[in-house]
Amino acid sequence: ADVAPPTSAPSITASITASITASIDASKKMSIDDVAAFAIAHNPELVAARASLPVRDAEAMRAGLWPDPALSASIAQPVTTTTDTTGVVVGADWDIGAIVAKGSESEAALAAADAARLAVKYQEVVVANEARLQAVKVAFLKQERAVALAAHQADDDLLQDAERAHAAGDATLEDVSVKQASASEAEARAFE
Q1: CA 126 to chain centre
Q2: How many whole angstroms from its chain centre is CA 106?
Q3: Tens-place pLDDT, residues 106-122
Q4: Residue 23 has pLDDT above 90, yes or no
Q5: Region of residue 71 (left: phi > 0; alpha: psi -120 to 50; beta: else)
Q6: What pLDDT shows up at residue 83?
Q7: For residue 35, which of 48, 20, 57, 54 has the smallest C-alpha distance?
Q8: Which candidate among 24, 93, 106, 182 keeps its CA 20 to 30 Å from the CA of 79?
Q9: What is the largest CA-CA distance in the chain?
Q10: What is the CA radius of gyration of the chain?
Q11: Could you give the count of Cα atoms lying within 13 Å of 110 in the half-sphere of its Cβ?
């Protein structure tokens, strides 16, 4: 159950977008840090990676345990002798190889658990930064749209003024055409 390496930004962006749109309350404003925390908490890749951390910790704990000794005992009654003797056999078995390897296995399991934790932290940083970036982009896009709508309204007003001036004979058709082209460009920017 290895932790997957950090994924690419488009995949993370898709996960963030899906998570945020699925359960965000649009009536409440969120700070950039709130967006990052929300993305970290709801990113499906991070949820799965964090769920695997207790498994890594259990593997590290298991690797630190001493191997179980095996004890055996048996009683044997010989069939061919004339005396009443009973044979008793007692045995103990402890895997010396496992005892010798215990230190390195324990260190390797602890290192794997630490690596899994660090991979999750790295993914959290990537997801948080991507969420912050997307939140800032959304804020700037809203501002850009507001400016474009204001410019569109101003160009429409100028076009109407030019049309009235042309109707009164105070402006040429060329003046109206220039204002019409400007209004069309502003409309395209406002509604793209």
Answers
A1: 7
A2: 29
A3: 888 888 888 999 999 99
A4: no
A5: beta
A6: 66
A7: 20
A8: 93
A9: 143
A10: 37
A11: 9
